[in-house]
Amino acid sequence: MRLYGRKISGGKAEGDVIIEPGAVSFLGGVDPEEGIIVDSSNQVSGQRIAGKVFAFSTGKGSTVGSYVIYRMKKAGTAPAAIINESAETIVASGAIISGIPMIDHIDISLLRNCDTVIVNADEAYVEMPGVVMKEAITTVIKKGEKVLILKRSEKVGSCKGRWAGVSGHIEEGDEGLESRVMKEVEEETRMNVRIVRSGEPILARDRSIIWKIHPFLAEAGSNEEPEIDWEHTKYRWISPEEVYDFNTVPKLDMVMKNLGIL
Amino acid sequence: MHLTAEQERMLEGEEGEAVRKGMELIVALGDIYGAERLIPVISVQVSGVSYKTIGDAGLEFIEDYARTMKKDAKKVRVKTTMNPAGMDLEKWTKMGVDRKFAEKQLRIFNAYTSMGIEPSLTCTPYYFVSEPKFGEHIAWAESSAVSYANSVIGARTNREGGPSALASAITGLTAEYGLHLEENRKADIIIDVGFEPDSYMYAALGNHLGALLSKMGKKVPYFKGINPGDDEMKALGAAMAATGSIALYHVENTTPEWKNAVNDKLERITISEEEIREHIKGMDRDCEPELIAIGCPHASEKELRRVAELVKGKKKKEGKELWISVSRAVAERNPDAVRIIEDFGGLVLRDTCMVVSPIEKRFHSTAVNSGKAAYYLPKESFCGQCVRFRPLEELINMAVEGET
Asked: What is the ipTM metric for this complex?
């Protein structure tokens, strides 16, 4: 599948991904002769970025970092391509003066170390061969000020034991997303609900699948209580802010944000 | 972003590779920061000149770029000046700079001049070299000059980096975002200064406030209760730019844009003299300075003459060095002051300063009155100095025979 971002520096390159979730300083944080990260505050400290697709949140530090990237390119120790969540001047300038393909506005949590990807910066996408996209819905049910979260059982296919909304894959034959929402709510909770609204879809990585999750907000009557099935072991009514206190499925907080309740 | 037909052609490479690269950089930065179009600039100040700061990586890039421009038969398109180098181009042996450093420094200088960049080598181009006017759009690197041009002159520039300033020099354009837009030039905090600082205290105030504002997420301070002259504003702005990336500030009744800079909803803080005195304790370390260095940013005519007045007829103490850094223009207009200081035994340096020259090779401790130098000099990986931060008169006394 392809992830689309924004072109910073043109070109196209293929390589294995190396991910740094934090910010990177090329002056002092990288050994340009060896192409190795030396900043101990980086998770990938000690690892080689030469020839890799280097994905990190953003740049930081001295503006001389742009020239360091240029030197690495000439010494053959530069990354093959750069992916940022949000580009800033230092790394963007370095990539452009060095002719290294670079894109930003990519959610790097969707990448995994050692994924082999193709960065096509001219068209502003990352191609991820072997990774497929599937679609799912997740529904947050609201009752008054509280929302329902459910603990996934050991029998489900993914994210065992973690707290989630009412979720399900979109299956062939579904007549639109809303009918899938109603089916899942009925199966998993037996509650009567009314769909209030949907939110912007969210992408989340699970092994070789990227899930496109469609968030829905539904409202239950004040007397409704869920009757859970085999897919869950517990449920709780919580305030949306309490979501951070639970070990949830990835991006449940984003789901709530996109629904405007967090 | 909207590009004109001519700009599109430049981006396509019809004017050669150097212009294409420059356009690519400016357009990408414009996209990152949400610019809708490119605008012409009337002048550019490039940074990345000292070999000490940019190293072999920078040297390589600049020489390659100069070759590309030569191949394209292109020069810079607008008046372009350059930041200080790592040495005085003539007096470098007196500074104790080694030959290897000097050779690489000259290569950088030659590459820049071959592009048509003026050999100004100063962080104060606004003294006689390149003086923008109120409201003019410029693309300057060098944070202290950016602060002065925006705040004291009322010109409009973002804080450019080395490559982006060079790109503006070659294309004559910059992306319209940030401080080029009126709405981003308003104050976001009011600073009530509870005392009247002298020039030393302005430098300390700037050193303290830059870090404080940056922590608070503030970008454009508005000062009340102070009445600084140009030299004081230079010192204040340079220090705030060093410790906190402040590129614009306003001073009530003084700077050109103060009138429309504030509204009554702004957050307000008060800074007391005690707070600054307390802050100075952290800047002024306990050490015996080997070097006394004045002129960060480069000294004005007034500052240079003041130093001459203080050392006139006196003798320099054995084992102490006194450096005054100025632009060539200021030195050339004040030959008497230069002679008095050199007769005393001090060095009037052009083209460089204590921050960007390799002083760590020769000195361990330096005394300054600059809030910017007091921030950079102690940095272990850069200058590694034990820094004394004292007023000008005390600095001079440290260097004079017979004074304690």
From this structure: 0.81
pLDDT score at B155: 98
Place of tokens 């005690």: B274
pLDDT tens-digit series, residues B379-390: 888 899 999 999
**Is the preceding omega at residue A129 within 30 degrees of 0, hence cis?**
no
Residue B97 maps to a domain: yes
Domain identity same for A46 and A100 = yes
Residue A201 lies in domain:
132-258
Residues A156 and A91 in one domain: no
What is the pLDDT at residue B404? 63
Residue of A nearest to B24 (CA): A96
pLDDT tens column, B135-164: 999 999 999 999 999 999 999 999 999 999
Q: Which among B251, B223, B242 is positioned nearest to B283, based on CA atoms?
A: B242
According to DSSP, residue B359 is labeled: G
* CATH classification at residue A94: 3.50.30.10
Q: What is the DSSP string of chain A?
A: -EEE-EEEE--EEEEEEEEEEEEE-HHHHEETTTTEE--TTSTTTT-B-TTSEEEEEEE-S-TTHHHHHHHHHHHT-S-SEEEESS--HHHHHHHHHHT--EEES--GGG--TT-EEEEETTTTEEE-TT-EEEEEEEEEEEETTEEEEEEE-TTSSSSTT-EE-EEEE--TT--SHHHHHHHHHHHHH---EEEEEE---EEEEETTEEEEEEEEEEEE-TT------TTEEEEEEE-GGGGGGS-BSTTHHHHHHHTT--
Residue ranges of chain B whose pLDDT lies below 70: 404
The total of structural domains in chain B comes to 3
The pLDDT, as a whole number, for residue B119 is 97
Quick check: B48 and A8 CB within 8 A? no
List A62, A109, A153, A198, catalytic entry: A62
Residue A198 is a catalytic residue: no
Interface test with A, best of B1, B11, B23, B29 (most A CBs within 10 A): B29
Q: Are residues B217 and B140 in the same domain?
A: no
Q: Classify the C-alpha dihedral B66-A60-A105-A78 as positive or negative.
A: positive
Backbone angles phi, psi at B310, to 5 degrees: -75, -30
SS3 content of chain B, % helix, strand, coil (to 5): 45, 15, 40
